[in-house]
Amino acid sequence: MAALHQLRDEELHVEDVPLSAVAQRFGTPTFVYSRAALSASYREFEGAFKSALATTSASYVGTGTQVTNGLADTRAPLICYAVKANPNIAILNLFARLGSGFDIVSVGELARVVAAGGDVSKVVFSGVGKSVDELRTALQAGIGCFNIESTAELHRLERVAAGHGAVAPISIRVNPDVNPNTHPYITTGLTENKFGVAREVALDLYRKARACAHLRIVGIDCHIGSQITEIGPYTDALARVLELVDQLADEGIALEHLDLGGGLGIRYRDESPPSIDAYAQALARVYGARPQRLMFEPGRILVGNAGLLLARIEYLKPGPVKNFAIVDAAMNDLMRPALYDAYHAVLPVKPRLGTSMLYDVVGPICESGDWLARSRSLVVEEGDLLAIDSAGAYGMSMSSNYNTRPRAAEVMIDGDRMFEIRARERVAQLFEGESLLP
Ligand code: LLP
Hints:
This protein has helices at 19-26, 35-56, 89-97, 107-115, 132-141, 151-163, 199-210, 232-250, 276-287, 300-303, 336-340, 427-430; strands at residues 5-8, 11-14, 17-18, 30-34, 78-82, 101-104, 123-125, 145-148, 168-173, 215-221, 257-259, 293-296, 307-317, 324-327, 346-348, 357-362, 371-378, 385-388, 409-414, 417-422.
């Protein structure tokens, strides 16, 4: 993936724009993304699978599968970008223009895909708690596939589809019970997790679905977790899913696609996640030459290292035990450190010479958990700009208004141009839906 930033003329730049120019024009805190980095990561992901599958599936090239919906029109892998990682419509639009489909988990995300000009027939709908309204809205919109996560959901969708005289395309989300060795909060493929159904249950659900007049079986789905830095859990999960695919085939249930979810990790600090190529090749080897189309739901790997959070130091507060650099960004802007103890690199926008000190980089929020980085060696002064790195995924999307803090602005850099893709919130917006008692 193209590097997001580089030091040029003693200042950090994203593409050709110095970060101080972003701060001057849009203020801070601001999320800054690179169009080139976003496009490069998408193309890298797509290219890796195209070439990995070309070597293992030569026998299928050119045969294609029957065209039945937006997911099945070619054997090329389909990327369904996981909207939750970063749902800004400019980013969705960028991926849509590159041919991406989308993985959504709410009709709110579906509305964003539509607003961004995404192809609804290339949307898959994941999530354990889809409401009747959500099922109906997504069905009427013509989405590509519902990833069913329980028996109750299967029955609910059948009823909703019958009520509309429609046929809903479905996959069953299988929980393969593999341990992805990531943070427990973002593990999803273990039996103890709420996601998907066990393989035995899946078999039963497929049989039930086959008997439902208003459901059409199109695929199978699995997503085992997030920020995964090993290949083994993926190949294990795929092998388990393939066993099920074979069992289904024996029963005459043919699938058009296999959705292997997302979760590939990125480097925040010193992790060494597999390259996208290695991941693609390992999966392609296990997959072999099967007729189904492969689908993926990558989020973080496409956007995580294509964005940073730009913040300004308000105060330096030295102390007997710790020194604090208090910045104008906080846990409401980037929740990952507080929630997962996550590491994000902190880079001064204009590095200074001098003696470094150890700082905790913290925000103005009234919680001791409001920290962005701990024990970082920095040479900084009040008023300096800091780039909090790798903030493109699950930064803005998990932000809140805690402490009545307006959400940050979002700016896309494209060469030497800057585009405000989301204006900074105004305080008045934050309580506009509230009312006084009579
Ligand atoms: N598909 C499904 C069904 C998912 O639940 C997720 C993420 C993805 C795809 C995309 O996963 P990715 O490729 O981005 O790892 N807030 C956490 C991450 C939560 C991930 C939730 N599901 C964090 O900041 O690390």
